[in-house]
Amino acid sequence: MVGFAVVGLGMGRNRSRMIQDTDGAELKIVVDLDETRLRDVSSELDVGGTTDLDAALDRDDVDVVLVMTPSGTHAELGIRAARAGKHVITTKPMDVSTEACDRLIAACDEAGVLCGVDYVSRYVDNNWRVAEAMRQGWLGKPILGEVRFKWFRAQSYFEASGGWRGTWKMDGGGSLANQGAHLLDVLCWFMGDAVSVYGEMAIMNHEIETEDIGLAIVNFESGAKGTIVGTTTFPASPYFSAEVHGTTGGVLIPDVLTGNVQIFGEGLEERLAAVENPLKNIVQDAVSAVERKTPLRVDGREGRRTVALLEAIYTSAREGGPINVGA
Questions:
Q1: pLDDT tens, position by position, 267-283
Q2: Which SS3 state, helix, strand or coil, does residue 112 take?
Q3: How many C-beta atoms surround the C-beta of residue 326 within 10 A?
Q4: Which of 229, 194, 198, 232 is nearest to 215 (CA)?
Q5: Fewest beta carbons less than 10 Å away: which of 18, 23, 82, 260?
Q6: Distance from C-alpha of 216 to C-alpha of 173, rounded to nearest angstrom
Q7: Among 38, 16, 27, which Cα is nearest to 63's?
Q8: What's the distance, CA 204 to chain centroid?
Q9: Omega into 278 within 30° of 0, i.e. cis?
Q10: How far is CA 188 from CA 94, 147, 185, in A?
Q11: H/E segment holding residue 284
């Protein structure tokens, strides 16, 4: 059994349940500074809890630490876990800057432990199939990839939990960095490395530091183009979509979290149907990586790529022109 500690019981509450439902995984302890929330989760899941991270890191039966705290704390907490000899998985995004990502990657490398990022869209069957189709060239030469995430968030969402959301220091951005991180990851997963980007951002309907509308045009290493639209001002039911096409086929994914698809291209539907996805979530992924030494779906360097693209979009928006995406 692979032992897990979960730090931060907002999203971490769901991941704690996931650990308990996954073969080969065992939830050993949960950690949160909010004593009421800690008691609730500990009682619900019948597991020990603590407000002291070091108490969890000192346990010999903890192999993997899931860091599910505000974005700007991921590297700091992950580095502490790595130095204690624990494998580290953060929620998305990896942190709010590539500098922080680099520090976490270096700490994990030095300690000889895994470093990964939990992007749920990576485990959806049809998303996995589309990524494989792009890797195999089944859509021909890539031409265009698009992602759109149009959500609504009330002002109360940004004011909750101490008001960390919508800040540069702790959220790393707005709609692109928080909700949009999932689809920026999907776009780069499908299309490959971005080399340059032009971005714009605006605050239209919230009292926050960061954007509630973000737009970008991306140029990829392959020569393909990409577009990004993200907002938390959309007043109707949200959508979370991705589209890719090449010279011989295309795929529309109306919702990357469920992975329903529309497929265009001769024989492409049959090819995609034959692709099997062996992993269903980050906990299965971590168990496989620890026990069988398989690569994580999103390791630290892959997780850093989304943060680098975010930084480039924000820099472009501030400077008013296209810029190169940093290595």
A1: 999 999 999 999 999 99
A2: coil
A3: 11
A4: 229
A5: 23
A6: 14
A7: 27
A8: 25
A9: no
A10: 15, 10, 5
A11: helix 282-292
